[in-house]
Design brief:
The chain has four domains: 99 residues; 98 residues, Zinc Finger, Delta Prime, domain 3; 120 residues, no CATH class; 98 residues. 63% of the residues lie in helices and 0% in strands. The longest helix has 21 residues.
Length: 515
């Protein structure tokens, strides 16, 4: 441990025992606030990763890249360790309560996965790019002095009913109580902590609460199980913070709060055995169109009914993802930007998050998660435009040669020509060519461009959805990626033209590779 920067945290045993014994609310009334258990000047302890975490919190992004490349070159660290340290530095600094901060956190696993696809001499690029963004924001809010997450007394609580209690504390905007409740179950298995947390994640409709939870559970494999609470804790804080904002702005709670329990009860989804039936391509396409065309209530009811009929959860998840994909393909040219926080990218990332989370959750959250995912996709009003590419787009592509089609796609990306990029990849897929060269092309721009903080995340969504979508429909995902990539090329976060992702070109120079 870095003794200068991270003093060992000594737990307040007396306060912790009192809170565990009588509960957070009563302890507050007795003059021993749950906040006392974690309001401290001390830092969290990350063991062997402490020096790397400190480096990321104390160093300017430009200098950080130089130091990290030196460490990588000497073999002192690997990319996985850098991602782990970045995740912990981010969580401690922002605690899930900073827009750029949680977007950087959500991009870490996609960056690591992208790195595994790349040639050895370029493998560090996606990681360095996201770490630059991560540290840049840490420095912007105060650097090492900014510590949103403080040590908190944990353990000793019951998991029974924890999900509902945590959700209720979140609904009240009570950060201290929510924090202490969740900390009280740190000694139960991680999957049980995650299932308890999902009650709160499902309690509102926002892509960030879904994707942050999805990436947090994935990051546990990178940072280690001993840091599981830190990863999941930022999701608790995000939800409470969002609830406070909602109440401060006088907005009504999401309709999902009344609809979800009604559908669970109406279709008896918590007591019946889930089915494994796959009714085939036509059904999946029809369900995707239903979710796309109908309103939130109708789409959610259709999903609940399908679950009750014994349709396999993952098949339903596939239909939701295809409905979200239509939001990318059908957006008209009148709204030029399809990248970033567009309806299609947000909805696709949300659907992908839920498809992954239901695979590691219990039955309650498998069915709830799918209903919530359908509600989220259907909340975006459907576009009237036909899906890209339409006939006029295809007329611009008068070849079936694989290399020529890829060349047209790349030229179109650099010209921000979404229609022709989509058409070229559509024709390429129709010819039965391998998807690998297309992913290689799109990945190049997922690394070099910012995409309004979404480039690497959406690329990873498409990689996963292509792999898990049936052959009849999977190329829709790559056509959508081509369109979004063409939209994003050369634009910064404020839609100013002529910019690569911050830190990308410097990282290329340090690695001695072409930008």
């Amino acid at each position: 441990m870095n003794q200068t920067n991270r003093r060992e945290f000594m737990k307040d045993v007396g306060s912790g025992m009192l809170i565990a014994g009588v509960g957070a609310s009563l302890a507050t009334e007795l003059g021993c606030s749950s906040a006392f258990a974690f309001d401290s000047d001390e830092s969290l302890s990350f063991g062997e990763l402490d020096p790397l975490v400190d480096l990321m919190q104390q160093t300017s992004p430009d200098q950080l890249q130089i130091k990290l490349v030196e460490k990588l070159s000497s073999g002192n660290v690997d990319l996985r360790q850098l991602i782990a340290a970045a995740a912990l530095a981010n969580a401690e600094t922002f605690g899930g309560q900073d827009y750029v901060g949680y977007h950087a956190e959500m991009a870490l696993i996609p960056a690591l996965e992208i790195a595994r696809e790349m040639p050895a001499n370029r493998r560090a690029l996606p990681v360095l790019k996201v770490l630059y963004r991560n540290t840049q924001q840490i420095q912007k809010v105060g650097g090492a002095r900014k510590k949103t997450l403080k040590p908190i007394q944990g353990g000793g609580g019951s998991i029974q009913g924890m999900g509902e209690r945590l959700r209720d504390a979140s609904r009240q905007g009570n950060m201290n109580e929510a924090e202490q409740l969740f900390a009280s179950v740190t000694d139960v298995p991680i999957n049980e902590q995650f299932n308890a947390l999902l009650h709160t994640i499902e309690d509102d409709i926002n892509v960030h609460r879904f994707v942050l939870a999805h990436r947090a559970i994935e990051l546990i494999d990178v940072v280690g199980k001993e840091q599981a609470h830190t990863m999941l804790r930022q999701c608790v804080r995000y939800c409470v913070d969002e609830e406070r904002i909602r109440m401060a702005r006088g907005r009504a709670p999401s309709a999902i709060r009344e609809l979800l329990p009604r559908l669970l009860d109406q279709h008896k989804l918590l007591s019946r055995q889930l089915g494994d039936r796959d009714p085939g391509d036509e059904w999946v396409d029809s369900m995707a169109n239903t979710i796309y065309d109908q309103n939130e209530t109708q789409a959610s009811d259709a999903v609940a009914a399908a679950l009750a009929e014994g349709i396999a959860p993952d098949v339903i998840g596939e239909a939701i993802a295809l409905a979200a994909n239509q939001l990318v393909l059908r957006q008209g040219a009148d709204r030029w930007r399809t990248h970033g926080n567009s309806a299609g990218v947000h909805s696709s990332d949300a659907a992908n998050a839920w498809r992954n989370m239901i695979r590691v959750s219990n039955q309650h959250h498998q069915v709830s998660g799918l209903i919530v995912a359908a509600f989220h996709t259907a909340r975006y009003r459907p576009f009237s435009h036909e899906p890209y590419p339409v006939g006029a787009h295809l007329e611009k592509v008068r070849t079936t040669d694989a290399d020529t089609l890829l060349g047209i796609a790349e030229e179109s990306i650099r010209a921000n020509d979404q229609a022709t990029a989509a058409a070229a990849i559509h024709v390429y897929g129709d010819q039965g060519y391998s998807e690998r060269p297309v992913f290689d092309l799109m990945r190049r721009y997922a690394v070099s461009e910012d995409g309004r903080l979404h480039a690497e995340k959406y690329y990873r969504t498409v990689v996963e959805e292509f792999a898990t979508t049936r052959p009849a429909f999977r190329w829709r995902q790559l056509v959508a990626l081509a369109r979004v990539t063409a939209s994003a090329y050369s634009y910064d976060r404020d839609d100013n033209k002529g910019h690569r992702a911050a830190g990308y070109e410097d990282a290329c120079r340090l690695l001695n590779v072409d930008a």
